[in-house]
Amino acid sequence: MTHSSQQTRPAAVAGMFYPGSSTILARDLRDLLAHGAQIPAERAKAIIAPHAGYVYSGPIAASVYAPLSALREIVRRVVLLGPTHRVAVNGLAVPSSTAFATPLGIVPVDQDALAAIAHLPQVVVSDAAHALEHSLEVQLPFLQTVLGEFTLVPLAVGRASAAQVAEVLDCLWGGDETLIVISSDLSHYLPYDVARQTDADTARHIVALDPHIDHPQACGATPVNGLLLAARGHGLRAQLIDLRNSGDTAGDKSRVVGYGAFAFSEAADDAH
């Protein structure tokens, strides 16, 4: 399969969503992760993290990324799903690029993993869906900081069902070497107190593995629901790590965006 497009997808939102300088970005991430809630590090198989500008959602993302440093020598592949914001696409789009760049360096795309899902009808190739998409990109500097060497399976999720997403996740589930990351914010532009109630309700549904989240509740509802379906099938349990909004971090409280951080791990055998 030959593609004429560029081999490396360049950073599209460096200098906007997060610092474009590698030095400043590394320093900001160090600060964010140092303040990240050090929850007991159960070995997370999957996480949900927000994807706004770091000044808004960085502290919430850091709360779920900080404990992943315990998996630095274990995780070798990250399956990263986020919603498309700019380009409509049917299904789950993979790029033809062989790597993704950020100011912190290059992350190779896992070609073997893409080959393993290429037969699924809901998996399509679209560089346009990835070119300007921030939902995946903003997760990469966090991953590059807390993990060691890893390959990336980038999936920009457009019009698809939760079952179609779960089918892709099942194909790529792997073992301890594979981490699944779902990029999603929660409610958008509600008044502060309404947002807090709405997001708390959404968080309860996510922790209950209820795969019926809708788009007003979470912009990444489709990949979130797909993960919740897959998590049920694989016996994972969900934990709420952090739940805040832009009114808590860097914005005014009249219209806020909600952010949640969740970790999914294998249920302990003695929890029956």
Task: Explain what this protein looks like in three dimensions.
- The chain has helices at residues 22-35, 54-65, 111-117, 127-131, 134-137, 139-146, 162-172, 192-207, 221-233, 246-249; strands at residues 8-9, 44-49, 77-83, 92-94, 99-102, 105-108, 123-125, 151-157, 178-183, 188-190, 236-245, 256-266.
- The protein is α/β, with parallel strands linked by helices.
- The strands form two sheets. Strands 2, 3, 4, 7, 8, 9, 10, 11 and 12 form a nine-stranded mixed sheet that branches.
- Strand 5 and strand 6 form a beta hairpin.
- Helix 1 (22-35) crosses helix 2 (54-65) and helix 7 (162-172) crosses helix 9 (221-233).
The helix content is: 25-40%
Terminal CA distance reads: 48 Å
- The Rg value, from CA coordinates, equals 17 Å
Which structural category do the helix and sheet elements fall into? alpha/beta
Mean pLDDT: 94
Number of strands: 12
- Largest sheet, strands/sense/barrel: 9 strands, mixed
Quaternary arrangement of the chains shown? single chain
Shape: globular
What letter string, H or E per element, gives the SSE order?
EHEHEEEEHEHHHEHEEHHEHE
Percentage of residues in DSSP E strands: 15-25%
Give the low-pLDDT segments.
1-5
Question: With helices defined by DSSP (H or I, 4 residues minimum), what is the helix count?
Answer: 10
